[in-house]
Amino acid sequence: SKKPVRVAVTGAAGQIGYAILFRIASGEMLGKDQPVMLSLLEVPVEKAQQALQGVMMELQDCAFPLLVGMQAHSDPMTAFKDVDYALLIGSRPRGPGMERAELLAVNAEIFTAQGKALNAVASRDVRVLVVGNPANTNAYIAMKSAPDLPRKNFTAMLRLDHNRALSQLATKTGKAVADIEKMAVWGNHSPTMYADYRFATINGESVKDMINDQDWNANTFLPTVGKRGAAIIAARGVSSAASAANAAIDHMHDWALGTNGKWVTMGIPSNGEYGIPKDTMFGFPVTCVNGEYTIVEGLPIDAFSQECINKTLKELQEEQAGVAHLL
Ligand code: NAI
């Protein structure tokens, strides 16, 4: 049987933590033949650590055959020791009356410390997914704080936007989600993201031609996908958790095990592709093989798309400029 891998999850006692840990432990993320050891990080606050103990009791009670070990931590330096995968979910959400600069600053502190800890103690091949918002900028901070690790191993979660776009397109066309290929989401995980179905096909047929409605694209589809998080908060009273956990499982699963040629979206550091400045943590369409992703290159960018890409890029650059002095 396979050698166990170590998976770190931060914010492990939170909502997304509760929706993801059981799926990681059951093998849905890394395969039904891959034993895992969970390294669970929560803030050093008694209530959070106690809640984490409760989650661990439930994990134990599932008696998952693939879960060969787990530990609770309150310090990233111990939590990230030798980890092969790190899901950075815990972050500081915007509180009532909190200024944007303050939000960026508290998160910069968290992700600087976690990036440094990964740099110091994680496996040299650690694959990192940042879910905690602002996800792209937090991933950028962690990457910048870990100079000894490969830049390409730091990623941000755009997969929820990608999946939301797929299901909106399936509904609109009356086709199955599973049959949609070549979806792309560009940019920041925020309402400015650009979900781009110009290349998408269903059984070889162009989705754009099937829909043939630019007004729907600009005024219904993009706002629906962009504001979906807010719509869920309005309906549920709390933010999306199960769908976010599901997207994180998809992201890591596909990165580790490959996409068989299918396009997925990952937030990854640019190397200048599509004119996005180097190191910008940007959503791109990618394919994955053997634990490595490759950007889908050479796609034509029309005027409308360029405008959308410029807008989300501008927002990301402002976020990154806002934390530059903290790095
Ligand atoms: P939550 O508030 O239920 O849980 C967050 C947990 O993280 C808390 O238990 C907290 O104690 C912990 N935490 C905070 N700082 C930490 C630190 N420095 N180290 C370790 N743990 C820490 O929040 P929820 O619903 O689980 O969401 C987590 C994050 O994911 C939020 O920032 C949310 O905005 C973001 N999110 C991102 C999505 C995406 O598509 N990228 C989608 C949905 C949510």
From TrEMBL:
<comment type="similarity">
    <text>Belongs to the LDH/MDH superfamily. MDH type 2 family.</text>
</comment>
<feature type="binding site">
    <location>
        <begin position="131"/>
        <end position="133"/>
    </location>
    <ligand>
        <name>NAD(+)</name>
    </ligand>
</feature>
<keyword id="KW-0560">Oxidoreductase</keyword>
<feature type="domain" description="Lactate/malate dehydrogenase N-terminal">
    <location>
        <begin position="5"/>
        <end position="154"/>
    </location>
</feature>
<dbReference type="GO" id="GO:0030060">
    <property type="term" value="F:L-malate dehydrogenase (NAD+) activity"/>
</dbReference>
<feature type="binding site">
    <location>
        <position position="107"/>
    </location>
    <ligand>
        <name>NAD(+)</name>
    </ligand>
</feature>
<comment type="function">
    <text>Catalyzes the reversible oxidation of malate to oxaloacetate.</text>
</comment>
<dbReference type="Pfam" id="PF02866">
    <property type="entry name" value="Ldh_1_C"/>
</dbReference>
<feature type="binding site">
    <location>
        <position position="164"/>
    </location>
    <ligand>
        <name>substrate</name>
    </ligand>
</feature>
<dbReference type="GO" id="GO:0006108">
    <property type="term" value="P:malate metabolic process"/>
</dbReference>
<dbReference type="InterPro" id="IPR015955">
    <property type="entry name" value="Lactate_DH/Glyco_Ohase_4_C"/>
</dbReference>
<feature type="domain" description="Lactate/malate dehydrogenase C-terminal">
    <location>
        <begin position="159"/>
        <end position="321"/>
    </location>
</feature>
<keyword id="KW-0520">NAD</keyword>
<keyword id="KW-0816">Tricarboxylic acid cycle</keyword>
<dbReference type="InterPro" id="IPR022383">
    <property type="entry name" value="Lactate/malate_DH_C"/>
</dbReference>
<feature type="binding site">
    <location>
        <position position="100"/>
    </location>
    <ligand>
        <name>substrate</name>
    </ligand>
</feature>
<feature type="binding site">
    <location>
        <begin position="11"/>
        <end position="17"/>
    </location>
    <ligand>
        <name>NAD(+)</name>
    </ligand>
</feature>
<dbReference type="GO" id="GO:0006099">
    <property type="term" value="P:tricarboxylic acid cycle"/>
</dbReference>
<protein>
    <recommendedName>
        <fullName>Malate dehydrogenase</fullName>
        <ecNumber>1.1.1.37</ecNumber>
    </recommendedName>
</protein>
<dbReference type="InterPro" id="IPR036291">
    <property type="entry name" value="NAD(P)-bd_dom_sf"/>
</dbReference>
<feature type="binding site">
    <location>
        <position position="94"/>
    </location>
    <ligand>
        <name>substrate</name>
    </ligand>
</feature>
<dbReference type="InterPro" id="IPR001557">
    <property type="entry name" value="L-lactate/malate_DH"/>
</dbReference>
<dbReference type="InterPro" id="IPR001236">
    <property type="entry name" value="Lactate/malate_DH_N"/>
</dbReference>
<dbReference type="Pfam" id="PF00056">
    <property type="entry name" value="Ldh_1_N"/>
</dbReference>
<feature type="binding site">
    <location>
        <position position="133"/>
    </location>
    <ligand>
        <name>substrate</name>
    </ligand>
</feature>
<feature type="binding site">
    <location>
        <position position="114"/>
    </location>
    <ligand>
        <name>NAD(+)</name>
    </ligand>
</feature>
<dbReference type="InterPro" id="IPR010945">
    <property type="entry name" value="Malate_DH_type2"/>
</dbReference>
<feature type="active site" description="Proton acceptor">
    <location>
        <position position="189"/>
    </location>
</feature>
